[in-house]
Amino acid sequence: MQPMEKKPCFTNTVLSIDKWVHDHSKLLKITRRVFDVFGLSLIAYSTFTAIHLPLLLSGAFFIMITEIAYRALNFFGFLAIDPTKHAFKKEKYGKSEITYLGHVPVLKLKEITPYQNGYAHGYLMAPYIFKMLFRTRLSARLFGMLHFSKVKESLPEIKKHIPFDYLKELEGLANGMNDWDLKHSWIYRSPITLDELILFQLVPDMAHLTLSNLPLVGCSVVADRDENTEFITIGRHLDWPSFGIYGSHTILIHRSTTVSIGVPGLIGDLTVINESLFLALNVCSPRIRVDLIEADKMPSVFLMRHLAEHYTSVEALQQAERDQKIPVSLVPFHANAADQKDAIALHFRQDKNSDLLTVIRSISKKKPSHPFTTFNNHHPTTTTESHHLFFAKERAESAQIQFLKYASFPPLERITQILKASPINNHFTIHHVIYTPSTKELHISFDNSFAGSGTSQCISLTDFF
User: Fold this and answer.
1) Residues 452 and 436 sit within 8 Å (Cβ to Cβ)
2) What is the pLDDT along the chain (465 residues), one digit of tens a residue?
3) From 337's CA, which of 50, 230, 234, 290 has a CA 20 to 30 Å away?
4) pTM
């Protein structure tokens, strides 16, 4: 008898509680202030009474517990952000700048060389990157979420397979951050190293390697075709523990030929758009043990950027994969691609006949009654016992229900409703994107959780290309 597959312990009850906290963030903020005032009142009153010490300690304890609880809720991403309160200060360095389209932050990198672009990126974004890296390291130590120390052993070999221009950009990024730190830090300096920045680029690969034992939810991608125009619309959620900062610090990074939707300090791509093509990354099962990393392959975020910089159509991308012209990825993952008339999912290193070959799924071959989706399960799913990783099955079931419920709606509305549904929209969803390649219209919302519930901002990418 085969052992029963152990399914994740996931309940909508947990998500409902988290969603309530997220939706009532303003109420919780007011409650925090009320409790703080009450604690201060106890401290103040203690000076006029004989029971001075008990009241003083009670007031201090009340404030301490209130602040710890509130900051914990924020650290774990349950509190909503206000996108109208801009996280980044508008600044310029050389020809590059941080600006805003409405309330969407944009980092425009306009320097000549990769090193100079990296330097401008690092100098403009240093305070935010330092803060993000501190929280990421802290979480790794407290919760064992990311095995930086183990992966670091493979860095010398991994570096050899990072494109030269990307390495030069990372060198510039490190130097820009350190020069900003030298100029602005009067008491304590914390210089960043190239290796630390490379490890940050490897977080999606480490997620594949080490996060699957934790009750996390994963990224979702949905593509749809308009029956009348045959144009494609594609939507994606990025699920990533926000640590109270990743969602609020989502940013568009505009390079010469691409727009990347990510976070400061990440020069590889998670969600990226060029003039004709949309690309999105999903991690997947099965897990690979850290001690079995084949370091002579390209990390996933760099491979995504490579695809965005070298291919402008789904057909060209498919042909390149068939001709084995695409570099081999460090770990198995999904690359979702869409242009005006077609959409595919490239499932790298998941062919059942070889652990280096790619499975390709196309929207043209999907069943009419089913959505074209990518979650985190291995493809084909019959080759693994771990296709429930990141609650992929639960999200697939939710997508199917919403697809049928909104079958008569246009693609934009149908995808919106699918991505709003639980558990697709969850406490790790930090950016929500829907894009139509034919019009270059991008609908985006970002938050530290439940970004699919936020009010999307619509911006046109026409002027970027």
Assistant:
1) no
2) 344 444 444 556 778 889 999 999 999 999 999 999 999 998 888 877 777 788 888 889 989 999 999 998 988 888 999 999 999 999 999 999 999 999 999 999 999 999 999 999 999 999 999 999 888 887 777 665 666 666 777 888 889 889 999 999 999 999 999 999 999 877 766 789 999 999 999 988 876 555 444 557 789 999 999 999 999 999 999 998 888 899 999 999 999 999 999 999 999 999 999 999 999 999 886 555 555 567 778 999 999 999 999 999 999 999 999 999 999 998 889 999 999 999 999 999 888 888 788 999 999 999 999 999 999 887 877 655 454 567 888 899 999 999 999 999 999 999 999 999 999 999 999 999 999 999 999 999 999 999 999 899 999 999 998
3) 290
4) 0.91
How many Cα neighbours within 13 Å face the side chain of 321? Answer: 25
User: What is the spatial distance between Cα 451 and Cα 431, in angstroms, rounded to a whole number?
Assistant: 5
**How far is residue 274's CA from residue 77's CA, in Å, rounded to a whole number?**
30
Extract the tokens encoding 104. Answer: 């969407």
| Chain position carrying tokens 């990390």 | 299
Tell me how far the alpha carbon of residue 378 is from its chain's centroid. Answer: 20
Per the structure block, which two tokens stand in for 403?
Answer: 């697809």
Query: What's the first-to-final CA gap in the chain, in angstroms?
Result: 58
Amino acid at 264: P
Distance (Å, whole) CA 375 – CA 222: 9
Residues 6+ apart with CB under 8 A from 309: 257, 258, 274
Q: How far apart are CA 283 and CA 286, in angstroms?
A: 10
Residue pair 444/261 in contact by the 8 Å Cβ criterion: yes
The residue with tokens 């952000």 is 81
> Residues with Cβ < 8 Å from 155, sequence gap 6 or more?
195, 198, 199
Say if CB 109 and CB 96 are below 8 A apart: yes
441 forms beta bridges with 436, 460
Residue in the block written with tokens 């390709």? 360
Q: What is the DSSP code string of 133-189?
A: HHHHHHHHHHH----HHHHHTTHHHHHTTS-HHHHHHHHHHHHHHHHHHHHH-SS--
Q: d(Cα 360, Cα 139) in Å, to the nearest integer? A: 35
In this structure, what DSSP letter does residue 462 have?
A: G
Q: Which of 69, 80, 83 is nearest to 21 (CA)?
A: 80
